[in-house]
Structures are given as structure tokens and as C-alpha cells.
Amino acid sequence: MGSGENILQQPAVLIIADDPEFPRAVMARWQTERTVPAFTLIGSQVWNGASLTAFDLAIVGVVSGGLLHASLKPLDATGKPVVCVCNDAKTLQALREKLPRILALRQDEGWLESLMLVTGEALRRGEAVKRARQAEESAALDQRFATLGRYMLDMRHNLNNALTSVLGNSELLLLEPGALSAQVSDQIDTIRNMALRMHEIIQRFSSLDTELKASAENADTQASNGKKAFVASAR
């Protein structure tokens, strides 16, 4: 996967297991896939729920000392996908009853392929959620900009009236240079020049509005002509 946007970053997979063969088998199998995530390996003895947001998916293998539930509970609280591979039916059933959100698999023949199917789908779903969230945030930002733009266009008339008053009064004052000191005249001239610049900016807003409207109308016309041409060719 590419880099840059969060949704395009390499997925991060957390593996918690006390048997070193478990993560080796999982990572070796993942090497045959098109997308290989970044793995973080940790044993249940040192796992304390730290860095809960630093992964996209968690895989829990066989852990010792009755620490399975203690390892899974903080993971379940993150709301991120968690897959637990159990080595017996009793543990599997207990997990499904106590932590139904966690995906539990039995470590029997073919478990590795089942794990790849489940985790692959979980990562794809998580990526889709990220994309949707980013699209919503982008749409909200565009809406804020659009609202600001409409407000600025709506206020053009009021701003022009205010600038006309500033320009008119400053020019009247400058027509009587003898009545003002050189410093005051320079200050008034600066006010006049800044007002002219502001007027130019407002005029540019109006020009952009006209250009955007013309572009939108042109796009609508081209789409309409294209649709008519398609209909005509289909007859």
C-alpha cells in the first residue's frame, strides 16, 4: 500500500502470544499475501493494555497462566477487530459467551487459512471505515469553506459601500494638503491605498464567482450534449 494519507498506510497488526511458533506461522503465511502488515509481537506477561490505538487488528494466540481474558478485555474495549485463536472447544465457547464481539477460532487443521480469511476481511472493513470517515471529514470541511465563501460574496455590497466611504473621505482630506501635517497626509494616503487594495480583492471575489458559475454551466452543457449524442446514437 502507498504512504501519505492515513487510509493508505501499511496496516498494523498486534500479535499477543506466548508460543513463539504462533507468530512465526502467522507472519510466514502473511508473506504470501499481496499486502503484508507491520507486526508488533508481545507476550501476555508483558502486555498491559498499552498503546491500544497503535494497531488496526489484534491477533491473540495461546497465552499461559490464565491470562487470556485479561489480555482480551482491554483489546475488546478499543472497538478494533480482535481475533483469538483457541486450542480447545471449552475456551472457544467461553469466549463467545463472555466476549461476543471478539472473533474466536479453533486452532485445528486449516486454522491458519481461516485466520487469513477473517483477518483479511477485518482489515478491508477497517480501511473502508477509515475512507468513509475521511470522506465525511472532507465533506464537512468543504461545507465550511462553501459557507464562508457564500458569506463573503453576500457581504460584497456592504464592504464596497464601506470602502467607498473610506476612499471618498480620504480623498477629500488629501485635496487640502495645507490643512494637514506631512505625517497625517502620509497616513491618510496609506489608508486610501489600503482601501483600494481591499476593493481589488473584493472585485477578484466577484470575478471568481463569475468564472465558477460559467464553468459549472459549461460542464452542465457538455453533459447534456453528451447525453443527447448518446441517445441519438442508440436510436
What is the structure about, briefly put?
The protein is of the alpha/beta class. The protein contains six helices and five strands.
Write the layout of secondary structure elements.
Elements: E1 12-16, H1 21-30, E2 38-42, E3 57-60, H2 68-77, E4 82-86, H3 89-98, E5 103-106, H4 111-154, H5 156-174, H6 182-234
Parallel strand pairs: 1-2, 1-3, 3-4, 4-5
Question: What does this protein structure show overall?
Answer:
The chain has helices at residues 21-30, 68-77, 89-98, 111-154, 156-174, 182-234, and strands spanning 12-16, 38-42, 57-60, 82-86, 103-106. The chain is 62% helix and 10% strand. α5 (156-174) packs antiparallel against α6. It has a 5-stranded parallel beta sheet with strand order 2-1-3-4-5, sandwiched between helices. It is of the alpha/beta class and 235 residues long. The chain has 2 domains: 6-134, 3-Layer(aba) Sandwich (Rossmann fold); 155-234, no CATH class. The protein is built from 6 helices and 5 strands, in the order βαββαβαβααα. The radius of gyration is 33 Å and the shape is elongated.
List keywords for this structure.
alpha/beta; disordered N terminus; 235 residues; 6 helices; 2 domains; Rossmann fold; 5 strands; five-stranded parallel sheet
